[in-house]
Amino acid sequence: MEWGRAKTILILSFLLLNVVLGIQLWSSRADLLDLDANAIGAAEEIQRLTKSKNIQVPPDIPKDVPKLREIVVRFDDNFNPKKAVPLAAPFKFDPLISKGSFRELLAKTGIPKIESYQFDPMTSLGGTYVFHQLYGTLPMFDVQLRLFEKNGQITSYQQGYVEVQSDGQQKEQKVITAYIALRSLIENYLPSGAVITSVKLGYHGQVYNSQTLNMWPSWRVSLGNADGDVYYVHALNGAVEGPQKSKK
């Protein structure tokens, strides 16, 4: 009799578990469908808004929506991002050369941890070439290596470098799409006739006097105006920060 009751309880438990898993699966699928629908709707809205406000957007708007979380980093005291370091052997820098030759050239500079950075053509101008330290495959926009050109050669550099302390306490979340970030900017922040030159996903934070920096996934939206205005859109909650000036 006891065995029969136990078997009944086990069967009911398995049935209940299947129901719960089914609900979770359906909920996840519904969330994905909603996300896809929102992305499609945002893309259509972008087309309407850009026409009505005569705003130009780049053709290569990112479509990826990875799962990311906030991170905590600490600046390495061995690197001073405000101190110019002269190069023992100045060299000619050409960002248009092939990627393989580009990496080989940088490896010969003697700049420490040069392989940890990625070149950013959008903020490189006036004889200053900007690189961002990478976290995984994404740039940390506030952690930079700058190469300074004089008389056609790179003669010095400034370098910041961080160590990732933790990946934060939050669970990974899907970032908002670039289209949703752009829709918010175009509707509420950008003037008519604005030209958007770049939309890039990376990490951004607020740099204070502390050596520790909280960084969150952000869409960086660059404008092609005289000041080189840059907006950051929090890629998890949609909050907008900016504009900041990229040109001096």
From TrEMBL:
UniProt domain Regulatory protein YycH-like: residue ranges: 91-235
GO annotation, cellular component aspect: membrane
Database matches in Gene3D superfamilies: YycH protein, domain 3-like (2.40.128.690)
Lineage top rank: taxon: Bacteria
Family matches, as InterPro entries: YycI-like (IPR018604)
Protein known as: Two-component signal transduction system YycFG, regulatory protein YycI
